[in-house]
Amino acid sequence: MGPTKRFNASFHFEPPRSGRHPAPGEGKDDSGMRRFACAILLATGLTLHTGDRVSAQVYVEPFAGVLIVEDGGLEHLGFSIDPSAYVGGALGYTLRPGWEIAAAYGWAPAILTDDETGAEEDLFIHAYYAAVNYVRALSDPWSFVASVGAGGMTIQDDTVADDSSDPMVTLGGGLRYRASERFSIQGIVRDHIQLCKGLEGDEFAVSICPDDDSPRHHVEISGGVLILF
Questions:
Q1: Could you tell me what percent of the chain has a pLDDT over 70?
Q2: 189 versus 201: which is more confidently predicted?
Q3: CA–CA separation, 182 vs 112, rounded Å?
Q4: What pLDDT sits at residue 80?
């Protein structure tokens, strides 16, 4: 019995109506919308600047490291997964000193090995999530970073089997070194907790979850460069 795959998606498209003209007065009273937009811009400006100092910034972070996949649930099936390279990127925004929000995506090519025959199957692990980061200054230029987030994890292979996707919770912690006003270096360890929800009868879907669908803990050890704008 080997791993299997799954992907379910549905799309709905409603074509635009043609030949329709606005009713009298329709679309003209948008003063409330304009006031709302102005309020958002004003709030953003107040958040971005405290006095003359910029306290909120956008940053991008390319990162690379290793992903240690928990394969304990596959042992009774005779399969194992070795640690693999892990690469990705994050887009973040500093809300205020000490607090950030970020969206991240990571990708790992993994090899699923049949321990009895030695046969190998290529897997592709996709992790995507949004996170809140707490950054506490230590002795300058060092800071401690704690992160919590939620998203999903998708498993693919190189066959015609279906993908499988599960919810994911991410917890992490690490250190950040401020090299200059625009560049920082960060090293972090994250626990990507895959909340296995079962294949729901899809025997042709690939999965690294155990039969009892207990959560899997996949550990990321990575380093990245933060580029601030």
A1: 69
A2: 189
A3: 40
A4: 85
Distance CA 81, CA 122 (A): 10
Instruction: Tell me the pTM.
Output: 0.72
C-alpha angle 190-65-137 in degrees, rounded to nearest 5: 55
Rounded to whole angstroms, the Cα distance separating 72 from 81 reads 9
Under the banding of pLDDT at 50, 70 and 90, the label for residue 75 is low
pLDDT band at 112 (very low <50, low <70, confident <90, very high): confident
Q: Which amino acid is at 33?
A: M
User: Of 16-25, 157-166, 196-205, which has the strongest mean pLDDT?
Assistant: 157-166
C-alpha neighbours within 13 Å on the C-beta side of residue 34: 5
Q: In whole angstroms, how large is the CA radius of gyration of the chain? A: 23
Give the contacts of 38 (CB within 8 A, at least 6 positions apart): none
Bridge partners, 122 (sequence order): 111
DSSP 178-226: E-SSSEEEEEEEEEEEE-----TT-TTB-----TT---EEEEEEEEEEE
Task: Determine the Cα–Cα distance for residues 133 and 135; give it in Å rounded to an integer.
Answer: 6
| Cα dist from 8 to 22, 85, 128, 174, 197, whole Å | 39, 28, 18, 36, 14
Per-residue H/E/C for 21-58:
CCCCCCCCCCHHHHHHHHHHHHHHHHHHEECCEECCCE
Q: Give Cβ neighbours of residue 11 (< 8 Å, ≥ 6 apart).
A: none
